[in-house]
Amino acid sequence: MELDVLLKVGKNPKTSVREIAEELDSSKDTVHRIIKEHKYHPYIAQKVQHLEDNDHNRRIQLCVNFLNQSQAYSKITWTIFHRWDIKPRTIPRTVDCPHQ
């Protein structure tokens, strides 16, 4: 049983504990224990976003560009602070609502 579990993990590391247990007609707890005993990690790796070294400069440049576009900024600000459950007349704003 132990060898079968290790062969399955070695063949396809992305296979879940549940899938291995079903294929070998065993319990998830048994498969999980075997995997942990041999220093494998019983989870599926997922790609995630992360910051790169040059992202800081890009974010600063994005903010500078955003602030330099005052017209676009005022429209976006209005959109962010608009609440649909309140009538637009009661919302204080510095620009006219483009949607009225």
Automatic annotation (TrEMBL):
Residues 5-68 form the Transposase Tc1-like domain. InterPro entries: Transposase_Tc1-like (IPR002492), WH-like_DNA-bd_sf (IPR036388). It holds the Pfam family HTH_Tnp_Tc3_2. It comes from the Eukaryota. PANTHER family: HTH PSQ-TYPE DOMAIN-CONTAINING PROTEIN, TRANSPOSABLE ELEMENT TC3 TRANSPOSASE-LIKE PROTEIN. This is Transposase Tc1-like domain-containing protein. It comes from Hypothenemus hampei.
